[in-house]
Amino acid sequence: MAYTEMISYNKKFVKSIGDKRILILGFGREGHGTFLFLRKIFPHKTFGIADQNPKLVRLNLGRLETVRLHLGKRYLGAIKNYDVIIKSPGIAPKLIAPFVSKKQRVTSQTEIFFELCPGTIIGVTGTKGKSTTTSMIYEILRDAGFRAHLVGNIGKPALSSLASAGPNDIFVYELSSHQLYGLKKSPHVAVFLNIYPEHLDYYRNFAEYGRAKANICLWQNKDDYLIFNAKDRLVCKFAQKSKAHKISVTGKYYGLDKAAAREAGRISGVSNDSIEKTLKNFQYLPHRLELVGVFQGITFYNDSLATIPQATIAALDLLGSRVETLIAGGFDRGIDFRPLAEGIWRSRVKTVILFPESGKRIIKEVTASEKGGGIKYFAARNMREAISLAFLHTKTGKICLLSPASPSFGLFRDYRDRGNAYKRAVKSFSKKPRRM
């Protein structure tokens, strides 16, 4: 479906914003995609673009034609001059609330996509596991010959996929809580994996975060499907409120991801043989329990995306007794590390290497019981220092696991930067003679 056909397909949407003053609020990957989408529909319309980072806007925008730029620290002040604000998910609703009046419409790329999509949407959310599960479902459908699209955080910006879409297309959409916030539509097939405390700096409280996640299923009808984690109490609570056909799944870590992906494939009409063939050949995503390799007899895993204790506990449980060294810690959000300490006690971990600032509280919990008495712990100021300690204190045949249970802010740009620094340091130190 070309853009001109799409306009005809949904004249109501075009009419609703065609004569409005439109502001694209936030101009990262998603904001840029929204701009390109709207520019093709309205080639001569002047759009407003507001962002705190002037360099990011100029990098993404290219030719500065028929746009009004509102850049820098006071970028939110531009909101008052527009009728429709298309907000990027990274900007917290509480930040813009003081600037928005009741006469203005605040929307998002996700809401526009749900309004315009001519095909089927399979949405996936969860504090952890959504990227892997989304990728599994997409590959299951693609390998089975469906016209499948991977959209959202790990695929294309959603709106850019609509240009060639038709009623037989299936869009597998990774949906974060930020994208689900305020949404009043749910996908035909919803996959709801888990809810753990996360992004609490973005929301007023954990309850608001949970309600945002729940939008993936709260607006479904009796013809829709909800695949949900039967072991997550809060997910089950929200699942009860959905009108969709309900399919419960269980499993730990990648086991849950595979179980949910299997059900999504079956709902779409894929055979069991085809599903299992895809899952057997599935390549896991970087920084998600990624095998870096064996160096000087030590096996190194990169689980940098484990930004909460539950993810680190799952990694320890999955890898089992061979994990001898754990590298953890990072930005301290003040969450409870007692469950992580219990996970470390259950494991065979003998050495814990910790980054600031949360590392201080992690080791306090680990050593609060005599169960942690035999565990050695070290503070590391940077990744190279951490890896030097790992080579020194991990025996041949054992595993060193980077699974921080904390965000990366402070020492690293993001979880990717942290994971890549880990892989570089491991490969660099592996070339040096090992001391024991």
What structural keywords apply?
UDP-N-acetylmuramoyl-L-alanine:D-glutamate ligase; globular; 3 domains; six-stranded parallel sheet; six-stranded mixed sheet
Can you walk through the features of this model?
By secondary structure, this protein is an alpha/beta fold. The protein has 3 domains: 3-107, Rossmann fold, CATH 3.40.50; 111-281, UDP-N-acetylmuramoyl-L-alanine:D-glutamate ligase (3-Layer(aba) Sandwich); 290-429, Protein-Tyrosine Phosphatase, Chain A. The protein is 38% helix and 18% strand. The chain has 17 helices and 17 strands. It has helices at residues 3-9, 11-18, 29-41, 54-61, 93-96, 109-116, 130-143, 177-180, 206-218, 233-239, 254-267, 272-281, 309-319, 338-346, 358-366, 383-393, 415-429, and strands spanning 22-25, 47-51, 67-71, 84-87, 105-107, 120-125, 148-152, 170-174, 189-192, 225-229, 245-249, 290-295, 298-302, 323-328, 351-354, 376-379, 399-402. The strands form 3 sheets. Strands 7-8-6-9-10-11 form a 6-stranded parallel β-sheet, sandwiched between helices. β9, α9 and β10 (225-229) form a beta-alpha-beta unit. The longest helix is centred in the C-terminal third of the chain and has 15 residues, at 415-429. The chain is globular, with a radius of gyration of 23 Å. It starts with a helix and ends in a 7-residue tail after the last helix. The model has no long low-confidence stretch (mean pLDDT 92).
